[in-house]
Design goal:
With 387 residues, the protein is α+β, with helices and mostly antiparallel strands. It folds into 3 domains: 1-84, DnaJ domain (Helix Hairpins), CATH 1.10.287.110; 136-184 and 219-278, Urease metallochaperone UreE, N-terminal domain (HSP40/DNAj peptide-binding domain); 283-376, Sandwich (HSP40/DNAj peptide-binding domain), CATH 2.60.260.20. Helix content is 25%, strand content 24%. It is built from 10 helices and 15 strands. It has helices at residues 2-7, 11-15, 23-37, 46-62, 65-78, 106-110, 123-126, 151-156, 297-302, 360-376; strands spanning 143-149, 158-169, 185-186, 195-200, 203-208, 217-218, 231-242, 251-254, 270-276, 283-285, 288-295, 304-310, 313-319, 328-331, 346-352. The strands form 6 sheets. Strands 10-11-15-14 form a 4-stranded mixed sheet. A 3-stranded mixed sheet has the order 1-9-8. Strands 2-7 form a two-stranded antiparallel sheet. A hairpin with a 2-residue loop joins β12 and β13. α3 (23-37) packs antiparallel against α4 (46-62). The longest helix is centred in the N-terminal third of the chain and has 17 residues, at 46-62. It is elongated. The termini are far apart. Homodimer.
């Protein structure tokens, strides 16, 4: 049973984190393992490849608060029964409807037939809410990847090539699982529903068809390249369009770009987490850009025109005479352009730069100026701290 397979796995152990680990700890553990185990870093290593798949599956559940809660609740409810206490002693049964069994089957608990079972309770983890055991080919798993962008590319948008090694639709049978020139046929055991029913005492239960394994179809001539699964592991490169204004840590979803589903089922999604490098000049505040420009005292006192950098060139900014070094200037429309949001501005802060040393002539001139200040009655701290 799919549900039993999920619950028998220890996703916390797969990621190497305790059951009470924070979401950030889970995310950090997954990133490290995914980087170390990725097939591109371990070409031809089947052990690393399988471990990479287990880590990705564990992260797909534990990174989702709702799925994680349902997974934790299920493990807590069934306790040690997950390790072999269920499904023991079940008889094979003659057909779609079986008699009472000697043992207790996991499908009885999660079955969605007349008894209802716990499919409603854990539907969000295993199926859609209110549905029983899944019928039909299995949807592909979601994939998680990370990419790093420069500050400028994140602000203006870019296209990033992403190399992915994962289960993909077989190029020979195009995902059907059947040898070219043939087609799957409907399973007569379950009439194509992928589900069979049986009785146990006063209750009736539904479960995936044993003949077609819940797919609803049978393949008489399997594809040689994928052994009838419709899926084969291959490396592909896709172009991921990063929208302008993406922020550090933001996740981008690419529908249908994850693992291929079995026998032509829907593919999973690809989630790309974007990391943005810091810039040596700019910082970001929402959709506004901030930049600090060094100026001298004479430029502040006498006024000047500055050449200020932007993401796509430079602008000239006039500084009036007598400007305070604490003043911030706003250049409209030179910030980040984000979809469905007003374009941000460029905020220019002035930073007074003081020379570390002066020549004798400069020192003499500055001393004369200081005397002019005193003679004119100028006191920079006249209104400071109550003086």
């Amino acid at each position: 049973m799919v549900q039993q397979e999920w619950l028998e796995k220890d996703f916390y152990k797969d990621l190497g984190v305790p059951p009470d680990a924070s979401q950030e700890a889970i995310k950090k553990a997954y990133r490290k393992l995914a980087r170390d185990l990725h097939p591109d870093a371990n070409p031809g290593n089947k052990v690393s490849e399988e471990r990479f798949k287990s880590v990705s599956e564990a992260h797909s559940v534990l990174s989702d608060p709702q799925k994680r809660k349902e997974y934790d609740d299920a493990r807590k409810y069934f306790g040690s029964g997950l390790r072999g206490g269920f499904g023991q002693g079940r008889g094979p049964g003659p057909g779609p409807s079986h008699g009472a069994d000697a043992g207790f089957d996991f499908g009885d608990v999660f079955g969605g037939g007349a008894g209802g079972g716990f499919s409603d309770l854990f539907g969000g983890l295993f199926n859609k809410p209110g549905q029983g055991s899944p019928a039909g080919p299995r949807r592909g798993r979601d994939l998680e990847f990370e990419t790093r962008l420069t500050f400028r590319d994140a602000a203006l948008g870019s296209v990033v090539p992403l190399k992915i090694t994962s289960p993909s639709a077989c190029t020979t049978c195009h995902g059907t699982g059947a040898r070219p020139g043939t087609s799957p046929r409907m399973c007569t055991y379950c009439n194509g529903s992928g589900v069979t029913s049986r009785n146990q005492g006063a209750f009736g239960f539904s479960e995936p068809c044993e003949e077609c394994h819940g797919t609803g179809s049978l393949i008489d001539s399997p594809c040689n390249d994928c052994a009838g699964s419709g899926v084969m592991t291959r490396t592909r490169t896709i172009s991921v369009r990063i929208p302008a204004g993406v922020e550090d840590g933001q996740r981008i979803r690419l529908a249908g770009q994850g693992e291929a589903g079995v026998r032509g089922a829907q593919s999973g999604d690809l989630f790309v987490t974007v990391h943005v490098d810091k810039h040596h000049v700019f910082e970001r505040s929402g959709n506004d850009l901030t930049v600090s420009v060094p100026v001298s005292y004479s430029e502040l006192a006498l006024g000047t025109t500055l050449s200020v950098p932007t993401l796509d060139g430079r602008v000239r900014l006039k500084i009036p005479a007598g400007t305070s070094p604490t003043r911030t200037f706003r250049v409209r429309g030179r910030g980040v352009q984000k979809k469905n949001a007003p374009v941000g501005d460029l905020l220019v802060s002035l930073v007074l730069a003081v020379p570390e040393s002066l020549s004798a002539e400069a020192t003499e001139a500055l001393e004369k100026y200081a005397q002019y200040e005193r003679d004119s009655g100028f006191d920079p701290r006249a209104k400071w701290a109550g003086s």
